Amino acid sequence: MSQTTAAIRAQALESLLIEKGLLDADLIDDVIVRYNERVGPMNGAQLVANAWLDEAFKQRLLTDATSVVREFEFSGGQVDKLVVVENTPQIHNVVVCTLCSCYPWAVLGLPPKWYKDPAYRSRVVREPRAVLAEFGTTIPAEKKIRVWDSSAEIRYMVLPQMPAAWQGRDVESLAATVSRDSMIGVTVLEDS
Amino acid sequence: MTDSPIPALENVLSEHLQPPMANGEVLFEAPWHGRVFGMAVALHEAGVFSWDEFQRQLIDVIGLWDRNARDADEYEYYEHFQTALQQLMVDKDLLSRDDLAHRQTHLANLPHGHDH
Question: Whole-structure pTM over 0.80, yes or no?
Answer without folding.
Answer: no
